[in-house]
Specification:
14 helices, globular, alpha+beta, disordered C terminus, three-stranded antiparallel beta sheet
C-alpha cells in the first residue's frame, strides 16, 4: 500500500498510521461521503498459511464486535470489504495520542489525570461487557486520548464473545491472546475469560500511569506471565507515595489474582475512580506527533505552499471539503503552536481553511477561524485595514453568506 492508492474506487489512502504483524492501518478519505477514515488491512499473504483461516475469522469478528458498540468511546465502523486479496475494515479516524506515548513523555501522570483516563475506559468497558464482549487486549497502545481529552478504546480485534462456546478456539496454536504486561492470571492460564480480565488489565494500566511502569516486569514474556499468576500484588505507594490510600486500595483489588476478588463491574470501578478524577483535565494538543514548528515554517516558506493551495482548490472543486480541511489542519497545527502564525503563507492557508470550512456548511466555524486570524494580526501590529477586512469576512460568514478571500 502507498499514499494515493484508491480502495474499491472509494477510499483514498493518505498516510500510514501503523503496522502490525498481520496488517497495516492507514489514514484515508472516503470520497463518496467526503470524510476522513482509518483503513485497517489484513494482509493475508503475511499470515502463516496454517493461521490464515483463524486470522480472517478474527478480523471479521472485529468488525462485527466493534460495530455493535455504538458508543462515543469506540471508533465507529463504516465498512468491511476485500481488495486485491486483502480484507479491509474502514473506521472512524481518531486523532490524538495513544496513552503509551503520553506515559513515555511523562512517566508518572498526575493522579487526577490517571483516574480520569481510567474512568473513561470504564465507561467503554461497561458498554462492551453489557454487549457480552471482553476486549482481551486492553493496554496503553489501545487507548487513545483525543485533543479534547476524551478517551477512545481501540482494537477489539481479539475481543471474545462471552456466549458462543467456540470463541476460545479462535486462537492460533501455541499463542496466548493479549499482551503479557497486561494479561490477567486466568488469561495466562488459558482459562475462560469474563469481564474481570479487562478490569485486571485496567488495573495494570492505572498502575503504569501512576508508577511509570507496569506492575510486573521481566526479561522474558513467560516470566511476566508467571508473575501475574504467582507474584504478590505490588503496592503503588512504593513507587508513588502521593497516591491516595483509597486509590491504592482500588488498585490492589483490580490486581487480585482471582477474578471473584476483583470489583464486580466496570461501572462500579468508575464510581470509585470519579472522586479522584474530579479536577482532571487532559490536554494533548501540544504533544501530538506531527510536524515540528521548524519543519512547518520551512514548508510555509517554500514553493510547496503553492502546490498545497492548488491541491486544496482541486479538492474543493470536487466538493471534498472535509479532506481539504483535514489536510489544512494537519499543516497548520504546528504552525499555530509557533511564532509564525501571521506570515503571508500562514495567513493565506488560514484563509483557505476558513473558505473551505464555510463551503462545507460550517459558517460559524469559518467565522471563528477568521476572528482568530484578525486577533493574531492585531497582536502582531499588522495594517488596520487588513485586520478590518478579516473581521468583516468573519461577520459575513457568521451570517451564512460570506466567503473568505485569499
Amino acid at each position: 500500500m502507498q499514499a494515493g492508492d484508491r480502495i474499491n474506487a472509494r477510499y483514498e489512502l493518505t498516510y500510514p498510521i501503523g503496522r502490525g504483524g498481520m496488517g497495516q492501518v492507514w489514514a484515508g478519505h472516503d470520497e463518496r461521503l467526503d470524510r476522513p477514515v482509518a483503513v485497517k488491512f489484513l494482509r493475508q499473504a503475511e499470515v502463516p498459511e496454517d493461521e490464515r483461516s483463524t486470522a480472517v475469522k478474527r478480523f471479521r469478528r472485529e468488525a462485527r464486535a466493534t460495530a455493535r458498540l455504538d458508543y462515543p468511546g469506540v471508533p465507529a465502523v463504516y465498512d468491511l470489504g476485500e481488495y486485491d486479496g486483502d480484507l479491509y475494515l474502514v473506521m472512524q479516524l481518531v486523532t490524538g495520542m495513544v496513552l503509551a506515548d503520553l506515559i513515555a513523555e511523562e512517566p508518572q501522570l498526575p493522579v487526577a489525570r490517571s483516574a480520569s483516563i481510567a474512568a473513561q475506559v470504564c465507561e467503554v468497558l461497561s458498554v462492551a461487557h453489557a454487549a457480552s464482549l471482553v476486549h482481551r487486549d486492553l493496554k496503553p497502545h489501545n487507548v487513545m486520548v483525543t485533543r479534547a481529552g476524551a478517551v477512545k478504546v481501540l482494537d477489539f480485534g481479539i475481543a471474545a464473545l462471552l456466549e458462543p462456546a467456540d470463541a476460545s478456539r479462535l486462537t492460533a496454536t501455541g499463542q496466548t491472546l493479549g499482551t503479557p504486561a497486561y494479561i490477567a492470571p486466568e488469561q495466562a492460564r488459558g482459562d475462560r475469560l469474563g469481564p474481570a480480565a479487562d478490569l485486571y488489565a485496567l488495573g495494570c494500566i492505572l498502575f503504569e500511569m501512576l508508577a511509570g511502569h507496569p506492575p510486573y516486569r521481566a526479561r522474558f514474556a513467560l516470566d511476566v506471565l508467571r508473575q501475574h499468576m504467582q507474584a504478590p500484588v505490588p503496592v503503588v505507594h512504593e513507587y508513588r507515595p502521593d497516591v491516595p490510600d483509597d486509590l491504592a486500595h482500588l488498585l490492589v483489588c483490580l490486581l487480585a489474582k482471582e477474578p471473584a476478588d476483583r470489583p464486580a463491574t466496570a461501572a462500579q470501578v468508575r464510581q470509585l475512580l470519579l472522586p479522584f478524577a474530579a479536577t482532571s483535565t487532559v490536554d494533548v494538543s501540544s504533544r501530538l506527533p506531527l510536524r515540528t514548528s521548524t519543519e512547518a515554517s520551512r514548508l510555509l516558506s517554500s514553493p510547496e505552499v503553492a502546490e498545497l493551495r492548488a491541491r486544496i482548490r482541486r479538492l474543493a472543486e470536487m466538493e471534498r471539503f472535509m479532506q481539504a480541511i483535514e489536510l489544512l489542519e494537519r499543516v497548520l497545527r504546528p504552525v499555530m503552536q509557533g511564532a509564525d502564525t501571521v506570515t503571508p503563507a500562514a495567513v493565506g492557508l488560514r484563509a483557505d481553511l476558513a473558505e473551505v470550512t464555510g463551503l462545507s456548511g460550517d459558517h460559524h466555524g469559518a467565522g471563528r477561524i477568521l476572528e482568530a486570524l484578525a486577533d493574531d494580526l492585531e497582536k502582531a501590529g499588522a495594517d488596520p485595514a487588513e485586520i478590518r477586512r478579516w473581521r468583516q469576512e468573519a461577520v459575513a460568514h457568521r451570517g451564512g453568506a460570506g466567503s473568505a478571500a485569499s
